[in-house]
Structures are given as C-alpha cells and as structure tokens.
Amino acid sequence: MNGFAALAFLALIFSAVNGFADWGLPNPPSTAIGESGTLYLAEPGWFFDIHNNDWLGQTDKLLTFSSALSYFLPLQTKDNSHDPTPEAFKFSVGYRLLTPVLETRFDMEELIPPEGIFAEWVELQWAYSRLFGRFKLELAVACDFFGYFNGDGVYHWFHEVVGSHDRWQEFGKRYEGTFGSGTVGVGYVWSENLLSMLYYSQSEIMESYTVATSLVYPINEHLSVAGENRFVQQLNSQAYRDERPFRHEWAWGLRWHFWQIHFKYVSPYLERDRWGQYYVSPVILNWKF
Q1: What residues contact residue 237 under an 8 Å CB cut-off, 6+ apart?
Q2: Cβ pair 143, 127 in contact under 8 A
Q3: How far from chain centre, in Å, is Cα 63?
Q4: How far apart are CA 248 and CA 233, in angstroms?
Q5: For labelling, which of 12, 135, 177, 277 has a CA lying 20 to 30 Å from the CA of 215?
Q6: Where are the domains positioned within the chain?
Q7: pLDDT, tens digit (0-9, with 9 covering 90-100), for 256-273
Q8: Rounded to two decimals, what is the model's pTM?
Q9: What secondary structure letter does DSSP report for 239?
Q10: How is domain 2-288 classified at the architecture level of CATH?
C-alpha cells in the first residue's frame, strides 16, 4: 500500500500537463499472479513485455518468469484524438514459468514438501473492452497449455550467467494439461485519470474477485506515469489447493515514447509462504500503428 500511495502522491506533483488515459483498451487482470498488465499505458498496436521475478534477490519462486506479445485493435473510431478508444479487442500469446516455493525467502529454512507447482505455461488470450459513457465492460477468454516448452535450457543458461544456484532438479513433477479460463469485469471511469474495476476470474491457477483502482497521469505527450492497486479475494485454486483467502497487489509504471518499465509487489498468497514478491518489468515495448 505504501508503494502505491507514494506513486499517487508523486503523480499528482508531476502531472503538470493535463492528459488522458486510454481506458477503452482491454487490461484484464492476468491469471498468472505477478504480471502487471499494461497499467493503461498501452496504445493501440503491438505490445511486448518481459516480467522478472524478485529483482531484490530475496526469492525465486511461483511466477519466476513471463513474457507475452499482444496486439490491441480498436473497433470504433474516436471522435477526437484525446478521447479513450470506445471499443477494442486484444489478442495475446504468452509464456510463463511457475516454480514451487523451496524457501519462502533465501535466508529461511526450506519447505518440506515444497509449496506450489512446477509448470511451463503457454496462454492464448482474447479480450474485449467497451465503454458505455463512464461505464466499462471487459471480457476475456483464454486457452492455457501446461506442458514442456524447453524452458529448462533458458533457466540453466540464465543461472549460469548470473552465477546463482540452479535448482531445476528440485522442482519436482511438472504440472500438465490443457485448460480454459475467463474473466468478466465492470467498472466506472471517475475522471480522465482514474478508473475503478470489479472483476470475476476463473482459471486453473485461481478463482477470484478483484477490486482494482488505476491511476494514469500523462506529464506530456511522450511521458506518463501510472499506478494500480488491487485487493483480491481468492476463492479456489485447482493448481495450488492451499491458497490464502486474500492477497494484495500494487504496481507502478512509467512510459517514455515506446518504452515502459513496471514495478510490482504481490503479497503472500499461499498458506506456508511468508514473504511477498517484487517484480520488475524492464523491457516493455509498444509499437503504435
């Protein structure tokens, strides 16, 4: 909460130029817990992102790595350039590496047995968004493939380069299968800079309700800052089976021309995990068409 409050305060100070956020583009909460989405800094066109687990070096667990390529397509023409897109479609393909919690933090004792699952996960997602005045409707469906996608080679190479301990052999049995997932959300645009959303999501990883508040403050035509706060009620998980009832997430981001960087925190969301995670997304590129 402190990180999100600091972002909101700084955004208010530095938002000297009036601007707008494109609330009409789809931005459903990811079923891969830890991804920051677009933070509504995206523009219509191609969007590529890479998310890295725990830049502070305290953990290496759960969502260890993810990356996706998305395409945002407006379905209606704006009345003027400063209006949000009234209706839009999104298609994305993404890869995620999920690892179990071997240690809740590197200076803590090992968990026996490990908490969580080991999985390579490819997702194909279709999302739709439409504004009705100040009200927003958002829908998303996805096909989730859990299997073998050669992630071990990249994992071994990365840990060799950074000189950290390679623990691939300790992850246990791989989680496999093909599943569907979906999200529906409704929200209200309070102003050009503030949006609130309520989502219901159903997936193999987590069934949940999410209350999200998003802030976007364009400083000028090429520079914007954004933040998001989420409270999530976790109802059920087919994959984890020992989820906590609630989790909290906050994130902030900066966009400069076509490049973005995001920073995100997720509180512990499994019962035996005692340490939250910090994610940094240093490579996010947006090609506007």
Answers
A1: 204, 205, 206, 207, 243
A2: no
A3: 10
A4: 9
A5: 277
A6: 2-288
A7: 999 999 999 999 999 999
A8: 0.89
A9: T
A10: Beta Barrel (2.40)
